[in-house]
Design goal:
The protein is mainly α. It has one domain: Proton glutamate symport protein (Orthogonal Bundle), CATH 1.10.3860. 74% of the residues lie in helices and 0% in strands.
C-alpha cells in the first residue's frame, strides 16, 4: 500500500476523493453553513491560495529559461539546418491546428455557459471584483501584436498581463545565442541550462505539495457547489478528450497520409510509446521508448530520429497547448456566467499564442501544464485561484495529453524522414535485402 501511494498521481487521486468525501459529509449533515464548516472552508481556501502563490512564483523564471533553452536547440547545428526547418514547420503547423481546434470546440460546446447562481456557487471563494476583473482585459488583435514587443522588458517580467512580450523576447534570446562566437555561445548555453535545471528542481519541489493543493482548492468548490459542479466539469472533460482524439486521429492522420504514410500502421507501431506516455505523464521519460519505436518499426534513420524526438519532447506539445486553451476559455466562460465578461476574439487569439509558446520546454514535466495555465490566466485577467475548478480532472487528462504529445513527436519523425527520401515502413521483403 505504501508503494502504491508513492506515485504522485495516486496521491492526487486520493486528495480528490478526500475532497469530495469532505464536501459530501458537510452537505449531508448541514455543516457547510455552521461556523465550523465556514471556518474549515476558509482555512482550506487559504492553504490553496498559498499553493497557488508558490506556483505563480516559479512561473516567470521557469517559463523564460525553458523557452530560452528550447530556442537554443534550434539551429545550433548547421548539419541539421534543413531538417530543423522542417521540424519547426511541422511543430508550428500542427500546434496551431490543435489550438484552433480546441478554441472552436470549447466555444461551440460552451460547457461553462451555466446558470448564474451555479457559476457564483462554483466561484464562491472569489470576491466580486475579481470576477469582474476579466471584463477589463479585452484586447484587439492589433493590441495583441503590440504586446509581443514591450517597450520595457523588465516591467513586462513583473506584470502578469505583459508576459507574452517576455516569452517572445526569450525566444529571440535563445535563437540569437547561437549567432555569438562559440566561446560566448557555449557560456550562455551552460548558464541558461543550469538556471533551467535549478528552476525545474524548484518546480518539482512545489509539485510535491500538489496533493495538498488539490485538496485545499477542490474541497471548497465542492462544498459550495455540491453536485452542480459535476455537470460543467464533466462537459469540459468530454470537450478536451474529443479535441485530443480529433487532433490525433484526424489531423495527424491526414498529415501522415499526405506523405504516403499509412496512419493505422503508424499508430499501431507507436502503441508502446503511447502507453508509456500515458502511464508516466512525462514526454521526456518516454523519449527512449519513442526512439525505439520510430527507429525499429518505422525504420527512421538515427540522424533524423535523434534530432526530432528529443527536440519534440521539449518543444512539440500539441496536446498540452490544446488543453491549456480549453482550460482557460472554460474557466473564463464560468466567470462570464457569474457576471464577468467573456473573452473577446483578440484575447482568445492571445491565449492561442501563449499556449503554443509556453508549451516549449515546460510540458516535459508531469502536471507542468498547470504552470502554463496559471500564466495564461494571468494574462487574460483571470484570478489564479479559479484554476481549482479543473483540477479534479487534470490527472487523467494529463496522461491523455502526454500521449498525444508523444504521438505528435513520432508523426514528425516519420513525416520528415519520408520527405527526406527515406523508406519509412518498408515491406518485409525490402528489410531482408
Amino acid at each position: 500500500m505504501r508503494k502504491f501511494f508513492s506515485k504522485l498521481h495516486w496521491q492526487v487521486a486520493a486528495a480528490l476523493f478526500a475532497a469530495v468525501a469532505l464536501a459530501a459529509t458537510f452537505r449531508i449533515f448541514g455543516a457547510a453553513e455552521t461556523p465550523f464548516g465556514a471556518g474549515t472552508v476558509n482555512l482550506l481556501s487559504s492553504v490553496g491560495s498559498v499553493f497557488m502563490r508558490m506556483l505563480s512564483m516559479i512561473v516567470v523564471p521557469l517559463v523564460v529559461t525553458s523557452v530560452v533553452c528550447g530556442s537554443m536547440h534550434l539551429g545550433a547545428s548547421g548539419k541539421f539546418l534543413r531538417i530543423g526547418a522542417k521540424t519547426l514547420l511541422f511543430y508550428a503547423v500542427t500546434g496551431l491546428l490543435a489550438t484552433c481546434l480546441a478554441v472552436f470546440l470549447i466555444n461551440a460546446a460552451a460547457p461553462g455557459d451555466i446558470p448564474q447562481e451555479t457559476a457564483k456557487n462554483i466561484l464562491g471563494g472569489l470576491p466580486p471584483e475579481k470576477i469582474a476583473q476579466e471584463s477589463q482585459q479585452g484586447h484587439s488583435v492589433s493590441e495583441v501584436v503590440l504586446r509581443m514587443f514591450p517597450p520595457n522588458i523588465v516591467a513586462a517580467a513583473s506584470d502578469n498581463t505583459q508576459l507574452l512580450g517576455l516569452i517572445i523576447f526569450a525566444v529571440m534570446l535563445g535563437v540569437f545565442i547561437n549567432s555569438l562566437p562559440e566561446k560566448h555561445a557555449e557560456f550562455q548555453r551552460k548558464l541558461w541550462q543550469s538556471f533551467n535545471a535549478c528552476f525545474e528542481k524548484i518546480t518539482y519541489f512545489i509539485m510535491r505539495f500538489l496533493p495538498i493543493g488539490v485538496f485545499a482548492l477542490t474541497a471548497p468548490v465542492c462544498v459550495r457547489a455540491g453536485l452542480d459542479v459535476i455537470g460543467p466539469v464533466l462537459s469540459f472533460f468530454v470537450v478536451v478528450v474529443a479535441a485530443l482524439l480529433l487532433h490525433a486521429l484526424i489531423t495527424m492522420s491526414a498529415i501522415l497520409y499526405s506523405a504516403g504514410i499509412p496512419p493505422a500502421k503508424h499508430l499501431k507501431a507507436m502503441m508502446p510509446a503511447i502507453i508509456t506516455a500515458f502511464s508516466t505523464s512525462s514526454s521526456v521519460a518516454t523519449v527512449p521508448v519513442t526512439l525505439e519505436c520510430v527507429e525499429g518499426s518505422a525504420r527512421v534513420s538515427k540522424d533524423i530520429s535523434g534530432f526530432t524526438i528529443p527536440l519534440g519532447a521539449t518543444v512539440n506539445m500539441n496536446g498540452s497547448a490544446l488543453y491549456e486553451c480549453v482550460a482557460v476559455i472554460f474557466i473564463s466562460q464560468i466567470m462570464a456566467s457569474a457576471g464577468g465578461a467573456p473573452l473577446d476574439i483578440g484575447t482568445q487569439f492571445m491565449v492561442i499564442i501563449l499556449a503554443l509558446l509556453t508549451s516549449i520546454g515546460v510540458a516535459g514535466i508531469p502536471s507542468a501544464s498547470l504552470v502554463a495555465i496559471v500564466l495564461i490566466m494571468g494574462v487574460a485577467g483571470i484570478p489564479a485561484e479559479a484554476v481549482g475548478i479543473i483540477w479534479m480532472t487534470d490527472r487523467l487528462l494529463d496522461m491523455m495529453r502526454t500521449s498525444v504529445n508523444i504521438y505528435g513527436d513520432s508523426c514528425a519523425a516519420v513525416w520528415i524522414a519520408k520527405t527526406e527520401g527515406e523508406n519509412v515502413y518498408p515491406e518485409s521483403s525490402e528489410i531482408s535485402k
